[in-house]
Design brief:
Blueprint (H helix, E strand, L loop, with lengths): L2 E10 L2 E10 L7 E6 L12 H12 L3 E5 L15 H17 L4 E7 L1 H10 L14 E4 L18 E6 L7 H8 L6 E6 L10 H12 L5
Parallel strand pairs: 3-4, 3-5, 5-6, 6-7, 7-8
Antiparallel strand pairs: 1-2, 2-4
Length: 219
């Protein structure tokens, strides 16, 4: 599917946020839009990460308008790393911008690694703060199982899609399956045969899993 891509600077809570908006070619406009969050800023994570790029591509192939952005202090985004809480607020600002751009569309949140944590935290906070409406889905790729408390996922009724490498060193299969058993429905857990956390050797399959998992939300 052909795409249109635009560069933007968004107003964030710690200054401007650098972003890329990708639209599928659809004369009627997208029925769904999504924010994709990148991995940890202190370990080289940016919106150009290869897994983030493939998530965005898979979502766009499903017919979704996709916004990737750099967290505060990354690339041309202003501010400094704020220990996860600030990054959740960056994602909230990006989502507010995207929903204003497509006021008639539903929305979704996705992310890889640290970005998966951010997307889930923000998406599961609906009803407590902006945004007021539930996401069509939350997508977490390479979800790290030991980075922070997961109790909130036992009460989060937003549809959740987990896409994980079979050899993820930060979210091992046994640990994720144990945690996943306690997560609230609706939920999906999809495994990709890959060599490591970064889906090495399995990026094509990961992208296709993203596309296929996202497509039902547009029906």
């Amino acid at each position: 599917m052909a795409r249109r891509i635009e560069s933007h600077f968004l107003a964030g809570p710690a200054g401007r946020l650098e972003a890329l908006l990708e639209e599928p070619e659809d004369p009627e406009g997208p029925r769904l839009c999504a924010v994709v969050c990148h991995p940890h800023p202190l370990y080289g994570g940016t919106m150009h990460n290869k897994v983030v790029y493939r998530i965005a591509k898979g979502l766009r192939r499903a017919g979704i308008a996709v916004l990737r952005f750099n967290f505060r202090g990354v690339g041309a985004s202003e501010g400094e790393h704020a220990n996860y809480i600030g990054e959740v607020e960056d994602a909230r600002a990006a989502l507010e911008w995207l929903r204003a751009r497509y006021p008639e569309s539903g929305y979704a949140l996705a992310g890889f690694s640290f970005g998966a944590r951010v997307a889930l935290r923000l998406g599961c906070s609906v009803g407590q703060a902006v945004p007021p409406a539930n996401a069509a889905f939350l997508m977490a790729a390479g979800f790290p199982t030991e980075r922070d408390g997961l109790d909130y996922l036992g009460h989060c009724r937003v549809p959740k899609i987990f896409i994980q490498s079979t050899n993820d060193q930060f979210g091992p299969r046994t640990a994720l399956e144990t945690a996943y058993a306690g997560f609230a429905e609706p939920k999906q857990l999809l495994w990709v045969e890959a060599q490591d956390h970064f889906f090495s050797g399995g990026l094509d399959e990961m992208e296709e899993r993203v596309r296929a998992a996202a497509t039902p939300a547009l029906r």
